[in-house]
Specification:
The two termini are about 35 Å apart. The protein has one domain: Decaprenyl diphosphate synthase-like (Undecaprenyl pyrophosphate synthetase), CATH 3.40.1180. The chain is α/β, with parallel strands linked by helices and about 290 residues long. The chain has nine helices and six strands, in the order αβααβααβαβααββα. It is globular and about 70 Å long. It has a six-stranded parallel sheet with strand order 3-4-2-1-5-6, with helices on both faces. It binds farnesyl diphosphate.
Length: about 290
C-alpha cells in the first residue's frame, strides 16, 4: 500500500519515458517481469561507493576501481533508460571528496569524467538520455565545466531518462545556496519571511526541476547518507547493498526496485498493520509508570 505524499510536499507529474524492455538482457528481463510497472519509482538516486575497496581487494590501484565504476555508470544508466525510469541521480563527486582526497585522485576523476562524456555522448543520444549536473560546478576546472556544458547541450532535447551527475556536490552547501537566494528575495521584498513555505525552499534547490527520490541506493554497505540530497530524501526509501559500485549492474538496480516495491510508503500516516484507531481517545486513561 502506498500512501500519497502529504499536501504541500512538492510533487511532479508522473510522466514516464517510453520503455524498451526488449533491450534488457535476459537476466534483467526476468527480474523486470516480477515488478509492478505501475509502481516503478520516478526517481532513483545512488551513492556510488566502494571503488577503492573493489580495487584494494584485487591488489589494484584505486584508479582502476574508479575506471570500473565508470563502466557501472554506463551499464546502470542504460538499464534505467530501457525501463523508462524518468530520473536517475548519481553522486559522482562530493564537495568533501574534492577537498579531502589527494589531488592526484581528484584530477584522475576529472579526467575520467571528461573521457566518459567524450565516449558516451553517442550512446546517450541512442538511448535518449538527457544529461544534467548539480553541485558547485563553477568551482570545477574550466575544461570540465566546458565538457559538462557541451554534453548537457547535446542531450538537452532527449526525452528519456534524465541522468543527473552530482559533482562537487554537498547537500548542506546546496541548502546554504538556497537560503542565500531566499534571503535575497526577502531583502528585495519579493518574499515575506512570515510566509516562507517548504515549497519556497524546494524551488531554490539544485533539484527544483525534479521530483524527490523515491529510492536511494548506497553500495558497499555503509549506513550513511554522506551529505547527499538531505532535504530531498525526507521520505525516500533507502536500500543498502554490500556490493561495491564497480560490480553494480542494471540487474542490481532492478533488484533494488523490487525490494522498494515490497515496502509500504507511509509519509507519516499509519500503516496497514498499525493497529486499530480508538475513535474516542478521551476514554483512554493514560498511565505513566
Ligand atoms: C566512491 O568510491 C566513489 C567516488 C568517490 C567517485 C565516483 C566515481 C565513479 C563511479 C567513476 C566515474 C564517474 C562517472 C560519472 C564517469 P570510493 O573511492 O570512496 O571507494 P572506497 O570507499 O572503497 O575507498
Amino acid at each position: 500500500m502506498y500512501s500519497s505524499p502529504p499536501a504541500g510536499m512538492a510533487t511532479h507529474p508522473d510522466t514516464r519515458p517510453a520503455s524498451r524492455i526488449d533491450e534488457l538482457i535476459p537476466e534483467e528481463r526476468a527480474v523486470y517481469a516480477t515488478l509492478k510497472p505501475e509502481r516503478l519509482p520516478q526517481h532513483v538516486a545512488i551513492i556510488m561507493d566502494g571503488n577503492g575497496r573493489w580495487a584494494g581487494r584485487r591488489s589494484l590501484k584505486r584508479f582502476l576501481g574508479h575506471q570500473q565504476g565508470a563502466k557501472a555508470v554506463q551499464c546502470v544508466t542504460e538499464t534505467a533508460a530501457c525501463i523508462g525510469l524518468p530520473w536517475l541521480t548519481l553522486y559522482a563527486l562530493s564537495l568533501e571528496n574534492n577537498l579531502r582526497r589527494p589531488r592526484a585522485e581528484v584530477s584522475f576523476l576529472m579526467r575520467l569524467l571528461k573521457t566518459y562524456l567524450d565516449d558516451n555522448i553517442a550512446r546517450m543520444m541512442k538511448n535518449n538520455i538527457r544529461l544534467r549536473c548539480i553541485g558547485r560546478i563553477h568551482d570545477l576546472p574550466p575544461d570540465v565545466q566546458a565538457k559538462m556544458r557541451d554534453a548537457e547541450e547535446a542531450t538537452l532535447r532527449n526525452t528519456g531518462t534524465t541522468l543527473t551527475l552530482a559533482l562537487n556536490y554537498g547537500a548542506r552547501s546546496e541548502l546554504v545556496d538556497a537560503f542565500r537566494r531566499l534571503a535575497e528575495e526577502v531583502r528585495s521584498k519579493r518574499l515575506n519571511p512570515e510566509r516562507i513555505t517548504e515549497e519556497d525552499i524546494h524551488r531554490h534547490l539544485y533539484t527544483a526541476h525534479m521530483p524527490d527520490p523515491d529510492l536511494l541506493i548506497r553500495t558497499s554497505g555503509e549506513l550513511r547518507v554522506s551529505n547527499f540530497l538531505l532535504w530531498q530524501i525526507a521520505y525516500t526509501e533507502i536500500f543498502v547493498t554490500e556490493r561495491f559500485w564497480p560490480d553494480f549492474r542494471g540487474i542490481h538496480l532492478l533488484e533494488a526496485i523490487a525490494a522498494f516495491q515490497r515496502r509500504e510508503r507511509r509519509y507519516g500516516a499509519i500503516g496497514e498493520d498499525g493497529g486499530e484507531v480508538e475513535e474516542n481517545p478521551e476514554r483512554i486513561k493514560i498511565a505513566v509508570s
